[in-house]
Amino acid sequence: MDTMRERFITTAARLLDDDPRLAVVLAEISRDGFDRAERAHPDRVINVGIREQLLIGAGAGLALTGMRPIIHTFAPFLVERPFEQVKLDFGHQGVSGVLVSAGGSYDWPAAGITHMAPGDVALMGTLDGWTVQVPGHPDEAETLLRQAAAGEDRVYLRLSLQQNAQARPVGAGSGFTPVREGGQGVVIAVGPMLDNVLAATDGLDVTVLYATTVRPFDAAGLRRAVGARETADVVMVEPYLAGTSTGMANDALADLPHRVLGLGVGKAELRRYGQMDEQLAAHGLDPRGLRERIGGFLTS
Fold it and tell me: CA separation (Å) from 300 to 209, 227, 261?
């Protein structure tokens, strides 16, 4: 199976052939994958070098001319380093485009904290008008990229090396999808966390919801899952900063007695970086760690 990043490269290159409105803007990362596309469309594959603020500014400049930019690099260099440009060049100027990140929170541990961005979704959530999508499979990433490229809104597409064994139906604007039904609580698994959540909750009487679009937050979908219960226990399992979406889950259930547990990447830096599976275990996001915390929360 190819990775989400590999699927992004092949799909974006094909989209350039089909839609003259599109342009791909890079900052060295993944440049080799676009060699053919750059030869075919030298004016629409733009590499600005290791200049992430310019990356965002150039993409927004293209958007001002009526182009639809697809802007790509690792997550910390796409969201955190040039955040002011994302806020001003896109938001303040009222233009749109597609930001596509790689690396996520723990994909390349050997590169260290400089190449990790567990706070990216929380940061993007401070901005108005952005759709944030977190696919869990290369097929889902391709579908969401194609829809974003054809659209007119601002989209942040977050890719990862971690992926689920099978793709689920996804679509622009789609909310939380029920994967398993139960009566004791609701567990929301975001993107590549689904397989670990399903393994962790095997045998537990819980509803499991799958989320790839996390902004806007599907409050109505959560309420449907809770149903007519007089109280609700909800667990959010996110592959980025723990608690990123717990406030929105609380707001969705404001008129109902409830508890919300946010599981995700901790704030403390793990300085023994190890491998991705070791990062997951250290943050309690492997099946064993999730089972302990979800089970303990539901029975407490």
Answer: 22, 22, 12
Q: How many CB atoms lie within 10 A of CB 169?
A: 11
Split at pLDDT 50, 70, 90, the class of 173 is low
* Mean of all residue pLDDT scores within the chain: 96
Residue extents of the structural domains in the chain: 4-158, 177-299
Report helix, strand or coil for 246: helix
State how far the Cα of 49 lies from the Cα of 230, in Å rounded to an integer.
Answer: 56
CA dist 19 to 25, 42, 178, 206, Å? 15, 14, 35, 44
170 near 112, Cβ under 8 Å? no
Query: For the structural domain made of 177-299, what CATH number should be given?
Result: 3.40.50.920
- pLDDT tens digits for range 49-82: 999 999 999 999 999 999 999 999 999 999 999 9
Identical fold between 4-158 and 177-299: yes
C-alpha 25/C-alpha 87 separation (Å) is 18
Q: What is the pLDDT of residues 119-156, one digit of tens each?
A: 999 999 999 999 999 999 999 999 999 999 999 999 99
Instruction: Tell me the sheet residues that pair with 265.
Output: 241
**Which amino acid is residue 93, in one-letter code?**
Q
* C-alpha to C-alpha distance for 119 and 193, rounded to whole angstroms: 17
Length of the chain in terms of residues written: 300
Hey, how many other C-beta atoms are within 10 angstroms of the C-beta on 88? 13
Burial label, 268 (beta-carbon count in 10 A; 0-12, 13-18, 19+):
exposed
CATH architecture group of domain 4-158: 3-Layer(aba) Sandwich (3.40)
Buried b (16+ CB within 10 A) or exposed e, 91-129: beeebbbbbbbbbbbbbbbeeeeebbbbbbbbbbbebee
Where helices occur in the chain by DSSP H, the ranges are 4-18, 35-40, 52-64, 75, 83-85, 120-124, 138-150, 194-200, 219-226, 246-252, 276-282, 287-299
pLDDT tops 90 at residue 201: yes
